[in-house]
């Protein structure tokens, strides 16, 4: 009976609001050349089915690349405001550059929610909620996992030293490992090796050679895990050194399936797109609000136990 | 306006007629760019109408984007007219933004000092480009490719070494905000810089003797040298001008957005060259106009930002930009041919 009432109320609200206030949403995310965002987009597009059923629309705005990220994102926020949307779901990796644009949007009466990055700035931004992972919490989960699976000395590799979110991840790995009784070392390589698989592989090989006590490596990007995997193989240590990484990629999943990689830490980008768009539209249409803020969409550990379901998600474009 | 442009380029080839003529209008280097821009604008007005492409906010949106490109594109076009190319802009832009961010932000030096140091640094890069190009036989594409990577690498390394970070934040005093990085009527300050520079550069290229030199050097450097034009000195100054304008764009950006990042802005290289070529500047030199480059920059701005106002799948955006630009350039070629045949007819008659 209660359920019926709720459903009727929702339906009435939907009908009434779809005329007056159909939520037009803009989703602002990173480069369309970066496969990570395709998964966020997939989640948002599935949420858009509901938004459109209620008479609203979804417009996805993406930067071309990351060369001028903060300014590009601020421009996209301004663009969404100019388009007269009712709600903006945006990433917030560059608060200095984006904050004025976000505040201007809110002042113009637009509802804003955050996803993927910038959770620490939720209060300052005035946004409704944040859907993403907490880098430190994700790191702790990764460090604990490796230690509980028997690692004694975990090396966490940072590809761009000084980057706040990367440092937070490795700090988490270190604390998680220590908590579970293992040792952790943070390897900071020169920033010019960023994206350089061959160079990074050589650097990691040198570390593994120099300190044979290292029995687990955690990378913060999937390309870096490719580099570590090659280094471990080169040294013939596939059986003795465990490999883990942040984020998913086809090669990462293949290695987990084959047993040459222990795990990957997923921040569930599908949820970031799906939840940010659907909750924002519901807030505009029906005045609902998720009481939990921020909402953490990760960490979710992918390992041998759930690899098959993950592969099904990859096929559907949702993992 | 078009008349004076025509005069510039026809000085050597044919005597100009006195009154207004349709032939002269479409013969100007800016005509093709102008019609290309109008077509692109109409297309996006049609498909983006629903999302307020035609509002003041919509206009400000693509003009804001175009202004950063435009400030750099005009001096890049000068170099192209003079037969050279500068692609180091992609590194000078972030280097300038980081330099101001580090000096006046991290080290809290006075703003005017940070800005002066930034402009001097950029002038230094321009001087190196100019000296290398004029003193060696290495093409400017290769020289500035080298400085692109060198400056980009130095920016990254110095940022990491000095402030242990590849990003920097900068909170500017009010006067600096008012001059470089605020908004008037929804338009960023860089838009007004761009408009002012268009006027200055128009007089430089089309009304001053130096403008004639630029065309002469690009047309035939040997004859220009024989005619007594200081070819090397002119080129060095053009390279310095290009770097300093790029630094100005970088300063506007870091003050506007309160932050800078050290990543090399490779897209800026494409943007400036596209704006110039769509604007009717010939890649092999000797031909072009300030007004044309302005139209080219606006076309790029409309195409780049306009896609987001439409319902088109975002994965297709690069494809559409490519096709649109191709259409714009082909229109240019058509207009140039049309112009040539018109003048031939007139000469015969």
From TrEMBL, chain A:
Main location class: periplasm
Ranges of residues in domain Periplasmic binding protein: 25-285
Cellular component, GO, one term: outer membrane-bounded periplasmic space
Pfam families cross-referenced by the UniProt entry: Peripla_BP_4
Compartment(s): Periplasm
Extent of the signal sequence: 1-22
Molecular-function annotations in GO: carbohydrate binding
UniProtKB keywords: Signal
Family named by the database record: Belongs to the bacterial solute-binding protein 2 family.
Protein name: D-ribose-binding periplasmic protein
Gene (UniProt): rbsB_1
Automatic annotation (TrEMBL), chain B:
InterPro entries found in the cross-reference section: ABC_transp_permease
Record localization: Cell membrane
GO MF annotation terms: transmembrane transporter activity
Segment forming the signal sequence: none
GO cellular component terms, semicolon-separated: plasma membrane
Topological type in the membrane: Multi-pass membrane protein
Transmembrane annotation, as ranges: 30-49, 61-81, 112-132, 138-163, 184-205, 236-257, 269-296, 316-335
Highest taxon of the lineage: Bacteria
Primary localisation category: membrane
Keywords noted in UniProt: Cell inner membrane, Cell membrane, Membrane, Sugar transport, Transmembrane, Transmembrane helix, Transport
Known role: Part of the binding-protein-dependent transport system for D-xylose. Probably responsible for the translocation of the substrate across the membrane.
Record's protein name: Xylose transport system permease protein XylH
């Amino acid at each position: 009976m209660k359920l019926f009432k709720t459903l009727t109320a929702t339906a009435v609200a939907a009908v009434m609001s779809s005329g007056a206030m159909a939520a037009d949403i803009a989703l602002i995310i990173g480069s369309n050349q970066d496969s990570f965002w395709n998964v966020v987009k997939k989640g948002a597009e599935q949420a858009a089915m509901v938004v459109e059923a209620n008479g609203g629309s979804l417009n996805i705005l993406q930067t071309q690349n990351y060369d001028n990220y903060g300014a590009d994102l601020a421009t996209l926020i301004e663009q969404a405001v100019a388009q007269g949307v009712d709600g903006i779901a945006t990433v917030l990796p560059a608060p200095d550059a984006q904050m004025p644009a976000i505040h201007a949007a809110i002042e113009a009466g637009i509802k804003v929610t955050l996803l993927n990055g910038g959770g620490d700035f939720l209060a300052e931004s005035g946004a409704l909620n944040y859907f993403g992972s907490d880098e430190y919490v994700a790191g702790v989960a990764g460090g604990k996992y490796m230690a509980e699976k028997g690692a004694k000395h975990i090396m966490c590799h940072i590809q761009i030293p000084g980057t706040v979110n990367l440092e937070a991840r490795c700090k988490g790995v270190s604390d998680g490992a220590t908590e579970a009784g293992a040792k952790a070392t943070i390897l900071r390589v020169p920033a010019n090796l960023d994206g350089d698989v061959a160079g990074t592989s050589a650097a990691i090989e040198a570390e593994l050679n120099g300190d044979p006590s290292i029995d687990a490596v955690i990378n913060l990007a999937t390309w870096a895990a490719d580099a570590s995997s090659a280094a471990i193989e080169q040294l013939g240590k596939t059986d003795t050194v465990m490999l883990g990484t942040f984020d998913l990629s086809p090669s990462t999943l293949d290695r987990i399936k084959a047993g040459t990689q222990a795990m990957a830490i997923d921040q569930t980008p599908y949820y970031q797109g799906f939840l940010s768009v659907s909750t924002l539209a519901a807030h505009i249409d029906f005045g609902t609000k998720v009481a939990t803020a921020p909402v953490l969409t990760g960490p979710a550990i992918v390992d041998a136990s759930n690899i098959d379901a993950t592969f099904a998600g990859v096929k559907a474009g949702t993992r | 306006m078009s008349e004076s442009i025509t005069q510039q380029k026809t000085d050597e080839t044919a005597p100009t007629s006195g009154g207004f003529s349709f032939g002269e209008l479409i013969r100007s280097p800016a005509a093709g760019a102008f019609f290309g821009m109008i077509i692109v604008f109409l297309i996006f007005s049609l498909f983006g109408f629903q999302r307020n492409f035609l509002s003041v906010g919509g206009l400000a949106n693509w003009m804001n984007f175009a202004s950063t490109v435009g400030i750099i594109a005009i001096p890049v076009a000068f170099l192209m007219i003079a037969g050279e190319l500068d692609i180091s802009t992609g590194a000078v832009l972030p280097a300038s933004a980081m330099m101001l961010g580090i000096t006046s932000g991290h080290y809290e030096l006075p703003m005017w000092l940070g800005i002066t140091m930034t402009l001097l640094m950029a002038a230094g890069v321009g001087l190196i480009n100019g000296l290398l190009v004029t003193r060696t036989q290495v093409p400017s594409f290769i020289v500035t490719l080298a400085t692109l990577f060198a400056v980009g690498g130095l920016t990254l390394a110095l940022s990491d070494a000095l402030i242990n970070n590849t990003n920097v934040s900068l909170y500017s005093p009010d006067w600096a905000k008012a001059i470089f990085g605020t908004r008037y009527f929804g338009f960023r300050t860089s838009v007004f810089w761009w408009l002012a520079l268009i006027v200055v550069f128009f007089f430089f290229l089309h009304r001053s003797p130096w403008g004639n030199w630029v065309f002469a050097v690009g047309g035939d450097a040997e004859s220009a040298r024989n005619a007594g034009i200081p070819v090397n000195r002119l080129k060095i100054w053009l390279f310095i001008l290009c770097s300093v304008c790029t630094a100005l764009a970088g300063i506007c950006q870091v003050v506007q957005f309160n932050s800078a990042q050290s990543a090399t802005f490779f897209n800026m290289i494409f943007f400036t060259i596209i704006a110039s070529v769509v604007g009717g500047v010939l890649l092999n030199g000797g031909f072009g106009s300030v007004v044309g480059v302005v139209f080219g920059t606006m076309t790029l701005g409309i195409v780049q930002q306009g896609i987001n106002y439409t319902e088109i799948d975002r994965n297709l955006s690069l494809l559409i930009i490519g096709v649109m630009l191709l259409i714009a350039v082909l229109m240019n070629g058509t207009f140039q041919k049309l112009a040539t045949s018109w003048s031939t007819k007139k000469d015969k008659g």
